[in-house]
């Protein structure tokens, strides 16, 4: 093969914002300010002035996020990110639900999750089911990447104690019908708690209406311009969690460990400035994604856009390209200066088909051919046009 011609002699084009985003200037300033002032070393559990300053910084962020979500500040639990928030919700939420009355649930209690959940939910639920001996239902997806509401309704009954459906899928970007999910759960499994993984929705969506529909909600700072390794699990009224991490009893006995105060401050600053609060940014990213999709569809035969007919996040486009292995395309794109990702992952030397695409009913081959391009607020129209120009050539090379 001829050498790959880079998109630009000097620059790279980063199109993997669903994996992580660059730290926003607001987050960087908030973190640097905290360290600079010299109070950043205070342990928020103490009683002296330094400790109180650190605690105030945590509590201000707790209040900010709690107010926006419509939950009490005390129900905003700081965690080490989306994975921990999901584990705490699933494992700790299940334990708390059982503690308040396993007998409420007729017969053997059960949990329901969508089959296309992030592994942080899916694997936590499988591990909890194996450890606690409860029944776990994994509800399939429609071909469009939405949770199948008929299949969900079919497994909901008064034995269901906990349900988890993500607000938006991280691989294909489909926005889930959470109001409909919530109303089905309330109708058929009235004692169940409903959790949503809002990690991908958080940058783009007003989460207050979503929080009103659920009992527990997970977010992760590094998806909206905050630092990685920091997140939140928010609890609605009546919901609770048993700790998964045991120790000094921080976060009101729900998550032990000295919090990373600077990162929490960075998360707060990024939260306050996230695109969801700037409709012009959301509209611009949506327009650019649509432009990219329009050009690619016109130029590339055999291209399918996952979830093309349903509501999706502004920034994610997921392409299934027949006859092309996703990982090879991602590597070739990298060589050309484009950072994109594959849903399918390489475990033990073999490319695994994406569990999201399998849940959507794709055959195994197609489930190995999906790539995700995810834009950010900093992605320019010129970059989109450059990608649209270069991408079809990369695919053609792999098909040769
Ligand atoms: N849930 C979803 C939907 C995600 O996209 C991710 C990250 O990719 C996570 C959970 C895990 O979040 P973190 O990287 O903060 O552990």
Could you list some keywords that capture this structure?
Aspartate Aminotransferase, domain 2; 40% helix; binds pyridoxal-5'-phosphate; four-stranded antiparallel beta sheet; globular; single chain; 13 helices; alpha/beta; 400 residues; seven-stranded mixed beta sheet; Aspartate Aminotransferase, domain 1
What does this structure look like?
With 400 residues, the chain is α/β, with parallel strands linked by helices. It folds into two domains: 13-23 and 278-399, Aspartate Aminotransferase, domain 1; 25-272, 3-Layer(aba) Sandwich (Aspartate Aminotransferase, domain 2). Helix content is 40%, strand content 14%. The radius of gyration is 22 Å and the shape is globular. The mean pLDDT is 93. Pyridoxal-5'-phosphate is lined by residues 81-83, 86, 118, 120, 166, 170, 197, 199-200, 220, 222, 231.
